[in-house]
Design a protein that fits this description.
By secondary structure, this protein is α+β, with helices and mostly antiparallel strands. Helices cover 26% and strands 30% of the residues. 34% of the residues are buried.
């Protein structure tokens, strides 16, 4: 079984080559240093959510395509064991539970957040819609200019192709996030 960093390394190289981009060109499009991209493709470094999202946008692929290992026919992810990626901006961890098969366009995550700095997300691919259901705690989430306060059991759908935020209002907050790509 591959480590999360090995999966990212293999996936980045595969998607960069599929797109026909050099290391320099992809780094430029993603707004990251070429040395950072080179390290990630070599299986070293510690990529943040922001770096991987920028690379996904530059490659025009969902975030999940960069972090998810090949999927077995039956898969169980125990609580706390999924491939989590932390944010540089806030106490926020996104754990991919299921990515979209080629015939569909959705990814499923568990996100955990702690009070403090909000996680500000850059726009995703055009047409992306985020579906969020709070499982524990309270969150403030949604478009950056119009976030909504949510409690356990609340559901929110909002455009993911605009700048948006996630902020924990209570310790131990977490939610299920489904990203729908059109």
């Amino acid at each position: 079984m591959q480590t999360p960093l090995e999966t990212i390394s293999v996936s980045l190289r595969r998607e960069r080559e599929r797109a026909g981009l050099s290391l320099s060109e992809l780094a430029k499009r993603a707004g990251i240093a070429k040395s950072t991209l080179s390290q990630l493709e070599a299986g070293s470094g510690n990529p943040s959510v922001e770096t991987l999202w920028a690379l996904g946008v530059a490659l025009d692929v969902p975030f999940s395509r960069l972090v998810e290992p090949p999927e077995p026919r039956v898969r169980v992810i125990r609580s706390g064991e999924g491939p989590g990626v932390a944010s540089e901006q806030a106490s926020f961890v996104g754990t991919l539970l299921s990515s979209c098969p080629p015939s569909a366009r959705r990814d499923i995550y568990v996100i955990s957040l702690e009070p403090g700095s909000p996680r500000v997300a850059e726009p995703h691919m055009p047409g992306t819609v985020e579906h969020l259901t709070v499982a524990a705690g309270r969150l403030r989430a949604g478009p950056a200019g119009d976030p909504v306060d949510l409690a356990v059991g609340d559901y929110l759908a909002f455009p993911g192709d605009v700048s948006h935020v996630y902020e924990a209002l209570d310790p131990g907050s977490w939610a299920v996030l489904v990203m729908e790509h059109t």
